[in-house]
Write a structure and sequence with these properties.
Elements (H helix, E strand, L loop, with lengths): L4 E6 L3 H16 L3 E2 L8 E6 L4 H13 L8 E5 H7 L2 H5 L3 E5 L7 H9 L5 E3 L20 E5 L1 E2 L10 H5 L3 E2 L2 H13 L4 E5 L16 H9 L6 E5 L8 H9 L6 E3 L7 H7 L5 H13 L5 E8 L6 H14 L3 E6 L17 H24 L5 E10 L4 E6 L4 E5 L11 E9 L4 E5 L6
Parallel strand pairs: 1-2, 1-3, 3-4, 4-5, 5-6, 7-10, 10-11, 12-13, 13-14, 17-19
Antiparallel strand pairs: 8-9, 15-16, 15-18, 16-17, 18-19
Helix pairs in contact: 8-9, 12-13
The protein binds S-adenosyl-L-homocysteine, iron/sulfur cluster and FE3-S4 cluster (F3S).
Iron/sulfur cluster binds next to helix 6.
Length: 442
């Protein structure tokens, strides 16, 4: 067989990004070569997201472009839209040959073999999970930072969210398998590991050791060669003080926690079925703020959930002032198929959602400007992740997950992957600028 080519485009969260690394590995193993444009590919993969309607529409826009003139290309839709829409995708886009959700990727070699044999419509849609935890073929995109899956699926039932339907029930990976992969990553030269899961802190080791998430964190932090461990996402309900204690005791565990709040109003939180009140959430924030490690805190906010009054919304703005997050992601509520909130309609008009979104973003921008300015004059250790030629700066990432771009007398590529102390000299709303403290490579 002449060498065949594939192209893969990924939408959505880190879980999807990492899944695409696994899919790419399986394809490379089968002798496919990767190309960077769909036009040049025999096999075109879209790894999709359906968290909001806009995300879902993207894949159909992409497929539309090829409706005529598919030119013998094979199209595959993977990920959350695949799982959600299933065979309906074939009706909407008849030139698609493969539709498979994330729980089926372990079967990918078999599904691909059927496509190669000329089968026109192949599906992998079972949620009776064939596990994909151990995928030695994974082809990671980043040379220093590696994603590592510790838990799949979600057992919560937030009223607005498709994930329990698209990713299935929660399954934790055995701790020995996680540690084994962490050690392999260290041997391959990775120094930063990001533990992944929809709710990492619901982790419960299925093996007899029975570790909880904090215990797992302590063990991963001990893997020789690993200098930074991050984790995302944590659900506030399952966020115990033992996680903060683990961070306090292990400098390898990064001082950054992403703790999505969604709303500052306990009434809205109850209708969202988030399983915590504003007060319970703020107690967790207190634990984080009391830590001597100066833990950075980020969050997700949804505005315009059905029934969100002006007063509820003001509660969210007040929460932003109270917590002073280091960064946030904010979204307009988007009604989603299968979810409980669908029955509540889409009661807040779009213009009002837009107004609230802008108010949230403006407030947060002012907070970040203030917080970042306070860092001028301090020194932070960065992992060098890239170079911005135009600005003549290196791109660094601090343990708190801030971007700190900096100048350094050495312009050779050898700085990539290094850990360096950088003096912060300027600040903006979204990043910091500084100068390497030379002569002291740590
Ligand atoms: N598992 C994570 C979040 C996964 S989805 C958690 O529980 O925190 C990422 C973010 O998308 C959510 O935190 C939420 O803010 C947002 N989101 C999810 N469903 C949404 C919807 N229907 N409309 C708007 N935003 C949504
Ligand atoms: Fe969605 Fe809620 Fe599960 Fe997060 S915890 S993935 S928001 S259902
Ligand atoms: Fe999107 Fe699925 Fe992730 S819906 S956010 S890709 S889990």
């Amino acid at each position: 067989m002449a060498s065949k080519t594939f192209y893969i485009e990924t939408f959505g969260c880190q879980m999807n990004v990492h899944d695409s690394e696994k899919v790419a590995g399986a394809l490379l193993q089968r002798g496919y070569a990767r190309v960077e444009a769909p036009d040049a590919a025999d096999l075109v993969f879209y790894n999709t997201c359906s968290i909001r309607d806009k995300a879902e529409q993207k894949v159909f826009q992409r497929l539309q472009q090829f409706k005529r003139g598919a030119n013998g290309k094979v199209f595959a839709v993977l990920g959350c839209v695949a799982q959600q829409e299933g065979e309906k995708i074939f009706e909407r886009a008849p030139h698609v040959s493969l539709v498979a959700g994330s729980a089926s990727y372990a079967r990918l070699p078999e599904l691909l073999a059927r496509i190669e044999a000329g089968e026109r419509r192949v599906t992998g849609l079972s949620l009776d999970t064939d596990e994909t935890f151990e995928t030695p073929l994974t082809r990671r995109d980043h040379p220093h930072r590696a994603y590592l899956t510790i838990i799949e699926g979600c057992d919560k039932s937030c009223a607005y969210c498709v994930v329990p339907f698209t990713r299935g029930p929660e399954r934790s990976r055995a701790s020995a398998s996680i540690l084994q992969e962490a050690r392999e990553l260290a041997e391959q030269g990775y120094t930063e590991i990001q533990l992944l899961g929809q709710n990492v802190n619901s982790y419960r080791d299925p093996s007899p050791a029975g570790w909880n998430f904090a215990q797992l964190l302590r063990q991963v932090a001990r893997v020789p060669g690993i200098r930074r461990v991050r984790f995302t996402t944590s659900h506030p309900r399952d966020f115990g003080r033992d996680i903060v204690e683990a961070i306090d005791e292990n400098p390898v565990l990064c001082n950054h926690v992403h703790l999505p709040v969604q709303s500052g109003s306990s009434l809205v939180l109850a209708r969202m079925q988030r399983l915590y009140t504003r007060e319970e959430y703020l107690r967790r924030i207190e634990w984080l703020k009391q830590s001597p490690r100066q833990i950075a805190i980020s969050t997700d906010i949804i505005v315009g959930f059905p029934g969100e009054t002006e007063e509820d919304f003001q509660d969210t703005l007040r929460l932003l002032d109270q917590v002073e997050y280091d960064s946030i992601f904010s979204f307009k509520y988007s009604p989603r198929p299968n979810t409980a909130a669908l029955a509540l309609g889409d009661a807040v008009p779009d213009e009002e959602k837009q107004r609230r979104l802008l108010m949230v973003q403006e407030k947060q921008r002012a907070i970040q400007i203030r917080r970042h300015a306070a860092l001028i004059g301090s020194v932070a250790e960065v992992l060098v992740e890239g170079r911005n030629q135009a600005l003549g700066q290196w791109i660094g990432r601090t343990a708190q997950h801030r971007i700190l771009n900096f100048t350094h007398p050495d312009k050779s590529a050898s700085l990539l992957g290094a850990y360096l102390p950088v003096l912060v000299t300027r600040s903006g709303p979204n990043s910091l600028v500084g100068e390497a403290v030379t002569g002291a490579v740590v």
